[in-house]
Structures are given as structure tokens and as C-alpha cells.
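Q: Predict the bound structure with uridine-5'-diphosphate.
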Amino acid sequence: GKTKPRWQRVLLKVSGEALAGDGTQNIDPKLTMSIAREIASMSRLGIEIAMVVGGGNFFRGANWAGASGLDRASADHIGMMATVMNAIFLQASLESVGVPTRVQTAYRMAEVAEPYIRRRAMRHLEKGRVVIFGAGTGNPFFTTDTAAALRAAEINAQVVLKATNVEGVYDCDPRKNSCARLLDHVSYRQVAAMGLNVMDLTAITLCQENSIPVVVFDLNKPGNISKALSGDRIGTLVDH
Ligand code: UDP
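A: Predicted complex:
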């Protein structure tokens, strides 16, 4: 018979910044369609897919705090709304390829999306719907990586798959050091001790405390999302 996919339920984090692709717009529709098609084929294999999407392609709170009297909390509220824009775009892309999808937001935007209700999210997943969590954690001073770790723990996802603009985790910054090495595996402790650029420490700690492995991989390479969703070893694995 067919081999069973490795993961039954995953949390796929898509960085906002990566959604811009190399185009000049905030969102590259060719990229979102290719993401949607890969998710569709994996969802049809029965993998339950929850997503958290970032907002960095539109707005990052920390970069704007202080500008024009904007305090950090207000700037972060704008950042969280940026993630909802991406969530709705991705929902449309997914539904256009036939995948039933729900967006749930961490704070109420009831005319636009469902509010986050944990048990309801899990019910959607059981029914084969992709659930996209928008507005991060709903709290300023956090990141969507932390939202990904938090939601993964809440819904009992087996892994956080972090789709981003880099191939994985390097031992030092590849933009500054030509000798930077791509790491196949790192432990949670090494991430903290070496200051590796994987996720912020709040997110990593949450994954560590709940024994949720993280796979960091490049979203731009066609096929990578399918590989990550089916449990192939790509990018960098972070675990104990
Ligand atoms: N944000 C927040 N709380 C959260 C998640 C996100 O305040 O729980 C805000 C924050 O301003 C952040 C922005 O939303 O800069 C966009 O999210 P993020 O930077 O994590 O997106 P990504 O790096 O994935 O594009």
C-alpha cells in the first residue's frame, strides 16, 4: 500500500517577507499559487495542516515604533493586521485550488474571519480543512514565530515547519561570512547558546518545553513545502 505520511498534524509557518518573492509587490501571486498547490496535494494525502502567516512583507512593528508618535503596542497592532491580509490572500489561493480553508484571528475581526477557538480549529483540521491563524498571538511584543509555537502546542501539532527565505540555519551569518555552513541539525540549547538565527528565543523555548521539533527550510525552492509536509529531511532540524 501507500506509505503513510510521517506527520499527521503540522503547523506550517510562512514568513510574510517570503511571500513577496522577488517581485516588486508585497505579495507575489505566482508564489502564493505555487504554495497553495503544494499544500493542496499534501492536504489531499490526509495531512492536517494548520498555518501561521507572518506580516513582514507589509509591516513590522519594531521597525515603526517611535515613528510619528507610534508606540510599540500600536505599531504591533498594525503588524498583526498585516498578517491577516496575508492570511486572507492565502485563503483565496488555497480555495482556488479546491482546499477548504478557514481563517481564525487572534483578536476579533468577526466580519472577516472566525475568532480563534482552539477546539473549533481542531475540528476544522479533523475535517480536512486548512486553518490559517491570523493576527499572531494577538499580543504586541510577540512574533508570528511565537504564535506558530503557541498554536502548535495548543492544537497538538507534531512539528513546526518554518518556511522562510533562507535554506536553513547556518553556524554564522552567511551574508557576512563566506565560510558559513548550513547545519543539518541543531539542538534547542545550541540555538540559544550560539545565538543562532532560527526563531526568537520565546518561540524556541516554547517549542523546547513542549518537545515540538522545528524544521527551517527555504520556501522559494519548488517542491520544498511538499517535502517538508511529508517529513523529508530538508533544511535544518531543531530538536533536543
Ligand atoms: N506581531 C505582534 N504579535 C504577534 C505576532 C506579530 O505584535 O503575536 C506583529 C509585530 O509587529 C510583527 C508583525 O506583527 O513585526 C509581523 O509579524 P512578523 O514580524 O512575525 O512576520 P514575519 O517575520 O514572519 O514576516
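A: The domain at 9-239 is CATH 3.40.1160.10 (Carbamate kinase).
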